[in-house]
Amino acid sequence: MSLKGVLMAAALQGVTEARARIFGHVLNPLGKRSPHKILRKKLIGEKIASWYPDDIKNEDPSVLAREEKERLAKLEMLKRRGKGPPPKGQGKRATKRKK
Questions:
Q1: Is residue 37 within 8 Å of residue 25, measured between CB atoms?
Q2: Where is the composition biased (Basic residues) (predicted)?
Q3: CA dihedral 20, 22, 23, 27 (to 10 degrees)
Q4: What distance, in Å, lies between the first and last C-alpha atoms of the chain?
Q5: What is the DSSP letter of 84?
Q6: Is the model's pLDDT at 98 over the cut of 70?
Q7: Which residue stretches of 24-98 are H helix?
Q8: How far is CA 36 from CA 27, 30, 42, in A?
Q9: For a Cys staple, 84 with which of 13, 60, 78, 80, CB 3.0–4.6 Å?
Q10: What is d(CA 47, CA 50) in angstroms, rounded to the nearest whole number?
């Protein structure tokens, strides 16, 4: 390789590095795989989250109270039919241990 070729290669590399610095590009002279293409994309989580309304359950205590009332009423109905949860320590696993 001649001196002129070496100088041209060095000048071209210098220009490439300067261009990358000026325009904010990532220099990849070896051409290896890099996650830069994925990482430079804008994050879209906030935009997608803005499409959906806020969860009313977390904000309104009356909704939580109503749901709790419904849960307790259902539990009471199951207990009356004998289908409710067993008292603590008398479940399926506890009876297996006693045998």
A1: no
A2: 90-99
A3: 10
A4: 90
A5: S
A6: no
A7: 36-39, 45-51, 56-59, 61-80, 92-98
A8: 10, 14, 12
A9: 78
A10: 5
